[in-house]
Design goal:
By secondary structure, the chain is of the alpha/beta class. It is built from 13 helices and twelve strands. The strands form two sheets. It has a seven-stranded parallel beta sheet, with helices on both faces. Strands 2-1-3-4-5 form a five-stranded parallel beta sheet.
Length: 328
């Protein structure tokens, strides 16, 4: 534990894959007394009452009833990133605790990642790298082809801040943009990126050369893309997922990729993460996988940290909380 005069903030730890970013520790310690889960577990009686905020980094620490009951002074759970599927918002609210996240900080880098995956899958960049560097390669075939991006049709499922930024980028590639969303965007927002609303998801799937998932995981969107939806897509279509792994029925996706129902997939997310090392998705040439790095830039992660600090300080001082998550 750090400076005892500063507000106590619970963090997962300083080491390992779920530890907070080492580059951020100094900045955080200017504002807070950082208390790790290890500190709390070793001395709940002393540490618990000091904690006024939980700082969630890489979905840790886990906020459950047991933790909430052990933190009587808790005012806010501050979550890095936009996704909230790992938090029980109703449970947290029942303890009178606020929740904040950081959607603006992640939207641009995640949209960049979506376009990077789209381009990599369309032009078979990973396969091309393997071909170019293989010791067995004797020549390059002129008939080794990918898919054209310019002038093609992109269907975006989920037109929130990330989906809209994807559309802005896709417009520069002269793509025809379709989108499906719970709520239709304003006409001026559609016109700004040249996007056409598809009220029916089926229409988007049938018309798109690329389908990009940029929506949140909820009970309603789990396995939104299953066997039926994949069969509606073009046999040359490429599925890009920058949302959550559970948006897609992975067994159905494997089957579709193996049998030519769709052309390829590019996935920054899966379920679980990482996939078991013998999972069939890891063996398919028409799959591009990255390790959930949509927001993984130095600049974005620093902005996420600053946003979390701002939300925690606002909460502790009784001010309006930036990016507060309200129960619907």
């Amino acid at each position: 534990m750090g400076d005892q005069d500063l507000p106590g903030v619970l963090v997962s730890g300083f080491e390992g894959p779920s530890g907070i970013c080492k580059d951020h520790v100094g900045e955080l310690q200017k504002h807070f007394n950082l208390i790790t889960m290890q500190d709390l577990l070793e001395n709940k009686t002393q540490a618990g009452p000091k904690i006024q905020a939980v700082y969630i980094w890489n979905r840790k620490p886990v906020v459950d009833q047991e933790l909430l009951q052990s933190l009587p002074a808790l005012k806010i759970v501050a979550n890095a990133g936009a996704g909230l599927d790992h938090l029980d918002l109703k449970l947290i609210a029942s303890f009178g605790v606020k929740v904040a996240n950081t959607p603006q900080a992640v939207s641009s880098p995640t949209a960049d990642m979506g376009m990077a995956l789209l381009l990599a899958a369309a032009r078979r960049v990973v396969e091309g790298h393997q071909l170019a560097t293989s010791p067995d390669t004797k020549n390059f075939s002129t008939n080794w082809l990918g898919q054209e991006v310019t002038g093609s049709t992109l269907g975006i499922i989920g037109m929130g801040s990330i989906g809209y930024k994807v559309a802005q980028r896709a417009r520069a590639f002269e793509m025809n943009i379709l989108y499906h969303n719970r709520k239709r965007r304003k006409s001026e927002e559609e016109e700004a990126v040249g996007a056409t609303y598809c009220e029916r998801l089926d229409d988007l799937l049938q018309r798109s050369d690329f389908v990009m998932l940029a929506l949140s995981l909820t009970p309603q969107t789990q396995k939104l893309i299953g066997r039926r939806e994949l069969r509606l897509m073009k046999p040359t279509a490429i599925l890009v997922n920058i949302g959550r792994g559970l948006l897609v029925d992975q067994d159905a996706l494997v089957e579709a990729l193996q049998t030519g129902v769709i052309g390829a997939a590019a996935l920054d997310v899966s379920h679980p993460e990482p996939l078991p090392r013998d999972h069939p998705l890891l063996k398919l040439k028409n799959v591009t996988l990255t390790p959930h790095i949509g927001s993984a830039t130095h600049q974005a992660r620093w902005q996420i940290m600053e946003n979390l600090v701002g939300s925690i300080l606002a909460s502790l001082n009784g001010l309006p909380i930036p990016n507060e998550v309200l129960l619907k």
